[in-house]
Amino acid sequence: MIPVKPENLPLGAHMSTAGGLHTALERGMKAGCKTVQIFTKNSNQWKAKRLKPEDIQTYKIRLQESRIYPVVAHSAYLINLCAPDKETLRKSLAAFKDELDRCELLGIPNLIFHPGAHRGSGVREGVRRIAESLNLVHERTGGLHVKSTIECTAGQGSVVGYRFDHLRSIIDLVEEKNRVAVCLDTCHLFAAGYEINTERGYEQTYDEFREVVGFDRLSVFHCNDSKRELGSRIDRHEHIGKGKIGPVGFWLLMNDPRFVKTPKILETYTGKDLREDVINLRKLRSYVDLKRERLSRRKT
What we know:
Blueprint (H helix, E strand, L loop, with lengths): L10 E4 L7 H10 L3 E4 L14 H14 L4 E4 L11 H21 L3 E4 L9 H18 L6 E5 L12 H10 L6 E6 H6 L7 H14 L5 E6 L1 E2 L10 E2 L7 H9 L9 E3 L8 H13 L4 H4 L5
Parallel strand pairs: 1-2, 1-10, 2-3, 3-4, 4-5, 5-6, 6-7, 7-10
Antiparallel strand pairs: 8-9
Helix pairs in contact: 1-2, 3-4, 4-5
């Protein structure tokens, strides 16, 4: 049995910061989150206004009041640390540095980012560029505590990071290895071909991850079901238990003692009333200590 009450597990969701960074914490509390993910700037723009001291202070006060921990950040989608185009790479480096700085000011421990797309130059070259980019940005941000957290990908197009050995190769080439962590997205894993929806496939997946990357690197899970089938290499999120992964995959994750303390964050659609987040969080908590035979009787 998991030695933590379901309501105390570090479960949460990505929260909007509309109206100010602190509002994400208020929304998180409303949805029943113990952890949340945010964007520290507009996710579809290169640049952002500087954080004002009063905004940082308000955020930190709300953070203490909320008892939400940790808050993690996701980087802007435009960033591509292995872009072969020099101008795109230049903008990506500047934007990534800025986001690391913003996280440090806010006390956010992890900045999650997509490794990037090699655009035809090949995985090996993409891996080399990503590591080189991280080394450059880390050199320009010496002394920061926030970790550059590589998110596994679904393998669509020319993106890097859909195999564990890609993640390992990037980490091996990063000079300050203590500044690098990993985020595993369940939808991405499944779409990339990792069979996490069966007990055998689940164990094989995490045995491989332990051997290739190591659990010491794992900082965050993104909990998303998948609209598309195993190995589709298409990234389409679905609500928990309603996709191709289904209840078994999330039951296995929620009852895995190795990951009890690892934050698990939803990235599925929700309306302004956060109803879908509330339902998905309730469902994940309901899987804890649920007998396998009882799970099989459920529809989702």
